[in-house]
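Example 3.2
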Amino acid sequence: MPVAYVDIPAGVNDGAKKKILQELYEEIHEAWPIPDTRVLIREWPNEAVSQDGRIENVPMRGDSPAKRNEDLQQLGSYILLGASA
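Structure, written as tokens:
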């Protein structure tokens, strides 16, 4: 019996949860076609989540595409510098 846990922010609506559960089930079942696949959602309140060592009671959200690009470029530079040292 495959089992998966998904951590999400508290307050996600039921329609979004249903979509997450269905899509994850389909992917797991495609990889391991074993009966009785289970997906469990764990909801976390904002004040129980730390990002970069900070605990802040603000909604979880993704960074903007520009910020992610900037972070990836910095990471790439770090990896290149580390590889040449």
